[in-house]
Amino acid sequence: MNTQPIVIERIYNAPAERVWLAIASKEGMKKWYLNLDEFKPEVGFEFSFTGGEPGGTQYLHLSKVMEVIPGKKLSYSWRFDGYEGDSLVTWELFAEGDKTRLRLTHAGIHTFPQSNKDFYAPKFTEGWTILLGSMLQKYVETTDREIIVSRLLNAPVELVFEVWTKPEHVAKWYGPDGFTITTSDMNVKKGAEWNFMMHGPDGTDYPNKVQYTEVVKNERLEYIYGSGAENGEGDFNVTVTFEAQGDKTLLTMRSVFATAEERDTVVTDFGAIEGGNQTMNKLEAYLAELK
């Protein structure tokens, strides 16, 4: 039996303070990892969460904080309710200039029932690799370049997705207060485009172009948003997620800009956050009309 711990290291283009908040605060973890009701980086603090592969068995995870060195190290136990075995997850941070080296160690996986393939070490390695190499990296390296707008909508996910992807619907709600749009073409599939003109309250027209890079029906849209300029100046990446919560939908729109300066400009000069919230208000009102 292999009793060696899983050890994974990554270097992030982000200061250690930011990475620490991502792994050791409830607000930070919610953005890329766990949506906990409460979390405190204090020895003895206990927390739990439910998780597993989509469509597979969902397990209740039980954890307890075992060691904390603020800004440098966090360890907590990790076991599954109703199953034998206990393990220890340790996060260690090492500042390297303006970058951060993170080492994750997960020890004791061999104590879980090896008759259950969900508890095999390669499963954990795969999961941690995705979390650290994609989700955590994306979060800590883009925090100062992103805008996130989210809203829990009183409508099923299928309806919300349809209203976001059909031209006859988006014409009724898309854009901040006082703005309307006219769509010339909309083909919601990977590699296709949505081209439309946004009309400002002062009569100014603004060309908009959306280039879809990923489309998962009722789950996620990813696209490049811009004006259609040949040099792509001002373009930014957008991810819209649709998460079913009973008969409601948690919709989250995450925009990531090329630089922190570009992000700050659209916030201060163009009211991007306020405009995003106004757009969500209009979407919410339109969905209420459809019910």
From TrEMBL:
Residues in the signal sequence: none
Residue ranges of domain Activator of Hsp90 ATPase homologue 1/2-like C-terminal in the record: 13-141, 154-287
Family recorded in the similarity comment: Belongs to the AHA1 family.
InterPro entries to which the protein is assigned, alphabetical: ASHA1/2-like_C, START-like_dom_sf
Xref: CDD domains: SRPBCC_CalC_Aha1-like, SRPBCC_CalC_Aha1-like_1
Highest taxon in the source lineage: Bacteria
Organism: Flavipsychrobacter stenotrophus
Protein name: Activator of Hsp90 ATPase homologue 1/2-like C-terminal domain-containing protein
Pfam families for the chain: AHSA1
